[in-house]
Design brief:
ProC C-terminal domain-like fold, alpha/beta, Rossmann fold, 2 domains
């Protein structure tokens, strides 16, 4: 039996993408394996994903998604090296931080088509960002099929390899920073007397709406200025954020994430 996509590893991120791809492609097009079979149950029951072992998967999949941690990637490839030598045209997809397309190609035995992706957690609600880059062995048809399969997870954007770490520092790490900001907003409203459930609901809607405004209009500073009436309540709050150094702290957070990503390559 031949599969369009095979997923080795169905952890938090791998499992999210597995469900998205299986939903897009339909019954019987996707297979998967994981050391914890219970992680596959929803994919098997709801989307018809075929549970299998890594060797069968590597031998019978057009795209092989390596959803394992960077530190165990070499071991994962060792387990399927014979199957990969037979299934020479399979495209390898890696989501491991710190491992370039050339790193993955070497681990896979060399002379392989490799796509490297950097997804983020909002893929779970179809609002994700998946950054990707590919080596010169990936043809246009493979890119088209890959992009089509992942579209339900969010937007896909191609980057040069050298820009992937910068992109990941923003799209991959900043959901955590955003949740921290959101929690602070909700807590502040509770401090001012608003019930917790309303504070959370309003915060979520504000973030969703603000994001859509940025998508629609693009000029972030203009959007901010439009809310700040002279001598009004918002500019007073903006002043407090500036006094606290919010911009600098946020920029430092993204820069630290970027630097950590670069360190993982060493």
């Amino acid at each position: 039996m031949r599969f369009k996509f095979g997923f080795i590893g169905a952890g938090n991120m791998g499992g999210t993408l597995l469900l998205s791809v299986a939903q897009k492609l339909g019954f019987g097009q996707v297979c998967a394996t994981d050391h914890h079979p219970e992680k596959l149950q929803t994919a098997v029951d709801v989307y018809g994903v075929f549970p299998t072992d890594s060797k069968t998967l590597a031998l019978n999949s057009d795209f092989i998604v390596m959803g394992v941690k960077p530190q165990v990637m070499a071991k994962a490839f060792d387990e399927i090296k014979e199957e990969l030598s037979v299934n020479k045209d399979a495209v390898i997809i890696s989501m491991a931080a710190g491992l370039s397309t050339s790193d993955i190609e070497a681990l896979a035995g060399g002379n392989r088509a490799v796509i490297r992706i950097m997804p983020n957690t909002p893929c779970a609600v179809s609002e994700g960002v998946i950054l990707y880059t590919a080596n010169d062995k990936v043809n246009a048809d493979a890119i088209k099929n890959f992009v089509s399969a992942f579209t339900l997870a969010g937007i896909l954007d191609k980057l040069d390899e050298q820009k992937m770490d910068a992109g990941m520092a923003l799209s991959g790490c900043s959901p955590a920073f955003t949740y921290m900001f959101a929690e602070a907003l909700a807590d502040s409203a509770v401090l001012c007397g608003l019930p917790r459930e309303k504070a959370v609901a309003y915060t979520a809607k504000v973030l969703i709406g603000a994001g859509r405004m940025i998508e629609e209009y693009g000029h972030i500073s203009d959007l901010k200025d439009a809310v700040c009436s002279p001598g009004g309540t918002t500019i007073e709050g903006v002043h407090a954020l500036e006094q606290g150094g919010m911009r600098g702290v946020v920029m430092d957070a993204v820069k630290k994430s970027f630097e950590k990503s670069k360190q993982l390559k060493k």
